[in-house]
Design goal:
The protein folds into three domains: 6-42; 69-275, P-loop containing nucleotide triphosphate hydrolases (Rossmann fold), CATH 3.40.50.300; 279-449, 2-Layer Sandwich (Ribosomal Protein S5, domain 2), CATH 3.30.230.10. 25% of the residues lie in helices and 27% in strands. It has eleven helices and 25 strands. It has helices at 76-82, 102-113, 128-137, 153-161, 188-205, 226-230, 277-282, 328-341, 367-379, 405-414, 440-447, and strands at residues 6-11, 17-18, 34-39, 70-71, 86-87, 91-96, 119-123, 146-149, 167-171, 208-213, 233-238, 245-253, 261-267, 270-273, 291-298, 301-313, 321-324, 349-355, 382-383, 387-389, 392-393, 399-400, 419-422, 434-436, 448-449. The chain starts with 5 loop residues before the first strand and ends with a strand.
Length: 451
């Protein structure tokens, strides 16, 4: 007897399934995310191994000597993030906010790789004419890049499986659909099914595939979490849509380190690597109260960033706290610590924090710089000239150790900054240019000065 299809409801946010529709997902709590899908029971599940064959295996020592072929993108920083280039047979997922430059970057990469290998760019969102206009703007019309438009995962998988191309770029996975899945493109089942189909074809033909993914309004990669698990490399393109630097960082990489980051800048000819981002970020800095230079680490490279703070008396009963480029919860925690551990009275002040250049800082080493910027703005005192600041701050006001101190100091020396304010070195040799402080109160009293 042929089994009839059954119906289930899948949450497009978290992937949870339910036998009945509801307005709100019982797992993640999101509203109006349950979509109907047809499911056919697989009779082979009841008899595992009935149609299978014994696996062919080999010793691990026999595979250790095999070299991995990589495709170079001609953008050195992108190659570093990928671990040396795009690995043949790998599946790379790149995601970012709308307008961040994903399609622009991939068209540049495809045109560069097409000089030495066969590459096809498959667009499911734009027509060939629209992609051609972008190629004309980027001055890549003379490349040997092949272009196609399709929303069929089956057709794309057949193209990948043919082995005719060394690199296939799919833009984007949310527009692709498998014929045997009865749901709309962009749903949980379509995203996972299409990716699995393309991945199987890529592994069989040893073809490298790059997939573009959308992001949710919270910034997470849209679709099921399994999408990030099954791919080999996950890249995030970060940065402000209008101006500022763009950062490409790897959150998962089976073929290299996840500590590398590429810093790019949008130009008339597309995204270009920034050789000295520290100098560019500090070029327009004005020395005034509330301005502090932070020596931070992006991936494995040091970077000097200006942290700005503005403290004004509040005009309303509740003071306003806002932050750009840093977690506002971390800022509120540091403000509460400053009020408790120092003589700063911030309860009746509006406080604004800004990380210049459109960058987003997440490492704890920015704590001391934020505290000194707030203290500088609140008391209208300038920080000692030619100084960079770094260090994690605890709730007791103590300044804690951070990694890569030598790298931070060396980056400051390149720009002529000869003083570094940071934590006390407990073990090892004390760097010559490091002025160590034990707590925030000491740092504020010692290094903030009047004109």
């Amino acid at each position: 007897m042929v089994r009839r299809p059954t119906v289930r409801y899948v949450c497009s946010s978290c992937g949870a399934t339910s036998s009945a529709w509801a307005g709100r997902c019982a797992v993640c709590g999101e509203w109006n995310t349950l979509t109907e899908e047809a499911v056919i029971d697989d009779a082979s599940i009841a008899n595992p191994g009935a149609s299978g064959h014994k696996l062919k295996f080999n010793t691990i020592s026999a595979t250790s000597g095999k070299s991995v072929k990589r495709l170079k993108t001609d953008i050195a920083q992108i190659d570093d993030v990928l671990g040396g280039g795009i690995v043949s047979g790998s599946i790379t997922l790149i995601a970012g906010q709308p307008g961040a430059g994903k399609s622009t970057l991939l068209l540049q990469i495809a045109s560069s790789v097409a000089r030495s290998a066969s590459v096809i760019y498959v667009s499911g969102e734009e027509s060939t004419g629209q992609v051609g206009l972008r190629a004309q703007r980027l001055n890549t019309l003379e490349s040997k890049l092949k272009l196609a438009t399709s929303t069929s995962a089956d057709d794309i998988a057949a193209t990948v499986k043919s082995g005719e191309f060394s690199l296939v770029i799919v833009d984007s996975i949310q527009t692709i659909a498998c014929h045997h899945i009865n749901s709309a493109p962009g749903t949980i089942s379509q995203i996972s099914g299409s990716t699995q189909l393309i991945m199987s074809a890529a592994k069989l033909s040893n073809t490298a595939v790059i997939i573009v993914g959308h992001v949710t309004k919270e910034g997470a990669i849209a679709g099921p979490k399994i999408l990030e698990h099954i791919v080999d490399v996950v890249l995030q393109l970060e940065g402000e849509r209008y101006g500022g630097f763009k950062l490409v960082r790897s959150t998962k990489n089976r073929y290299g380190s996840t500590n590398e980051v590429a810093i790019l800048e949008m130009s008339d000819l597309g995204l270009r690597p920034v050789d000295n981002p520290s100098a560019a970020l500090l070029a327009e800095r004005q020395i005034c109260d509330g301005s502090v230079i932070l020596a931070t680490i992006e991936g494995s490279r040091p970077l000097l960033v200006e942290v700005q703070a503005l403290v004004n008396p509040t005009n309303y009963g509740i003071p306003k706290r806002a932050a750009s480029g840093i977690d506002i919860n971390r800022v509120n925690l540091l403000i509460a610590m400053l009020e408790k551990r120092t003589k700063l009275n911030l309860a009746n002040s509006d406080i604004y924090i800004n990380i210049v250049g459109g960058l987003r800082i997440s490492e704890p080493a920015a704590d001391l710089a934020i505290c000194m910027a707030i203290g500088s703005a609140a008391k209208a005192l300038k920080l000692k000239e030619n100084a960079v600041v770094f260090g994690e701050v605890g709730l007791s006001g103590e300044v804690r150790h951070v990694p890569f101190i030598d790298k931070r100091i060396q980056e400051a020396k390149k720009l002529g900054i000869d003083i570094a304010i940071g934590p006390i070195i407990r073990t090892g040799k004390q760097p010559a240019n490091l002025d160590s402080v034990s707590d925030v109160r000491t740092a504020l009293n010692k290094y903030l000065k009047t004109d």
